[in-house]
Structures are given as C-alpha cells and as structure tokens.
Amino acid sequence: MPYTRKFVHVVNFYLKPDLSAADVRAFEEGVSTLGKIESLLVFNVGKPANTDRPVIDRSYSYCLLTVFNDEAGHDVYQEHPVHLKFIENCNHLWEKVVIFDSETIQL
C-alpha cells in the first residue's frame, strides 16, 4: 500500500477565564460546526486530558485536531464559509489561539 502524506492542523484555544456557561456552550457549538467542512479527513475537538507529566501542557481550554489530504484541502477549509462564520461568531470568546501545522512523514 503506497504511503501518502497528510496535512495536520492543530489549534489550541485559550478561552477567556470569565466566560459564562452559555458562552462556553456557544464556543463548543461553534467549533463543532467546523466538522461539516468537506475537505476534512479527521475532525476532533477536546479538552485537556487528566494526564499529568512535566512535559504535558494543559494550559489550553480546547484542542482542535484536523487532518486533510494535503495543504490544498487545508486551504479550502481556511476560506470555507463555515470556518469564517465560526471565527466571526466566536473570536470574542478566546484570548489566545496557538496553531501547529505539520505534514506527516513517511517512516
């Protein structure tokens, strides 16, 4: 089976500390809509796990993990109306976003 590279886009959201439960729900509902974007292969949203080792950073509020066939699929996602609407509707809920983009390697 031939190996094909994938494009991985990880977004760590740091929500504002004073959000109401309704605000957090609005974020969760908004970020969940991103899973509808057609170019996605993998879509996952989660909170930090309870693991506790010195190398684990649990300072973020939510982590979004997305995987695409290639960078072109990621670019479609970035400009997709669902993605743009999420940013417009929810960007007031976070104080910081940290993104890690990578391409898988063949081992």
TrEMBL record:
It comes from the Bacteria. Signal peptide: none annotated. PROSITE patterns: S_R_A_B_BARREL (PS51502). InterPro entries: Dabb, Dimeric_a/b-barrel. Transmembrane segments: none annotated. This is Stress responsive A/B Barrel Domain. The lineage of its organism: Bacteria, Pseudomonadati, Bacteroidota, Chitinophagia, Chitinophagales. Residues 7-102 form the Stress-response A/B barrel domain.
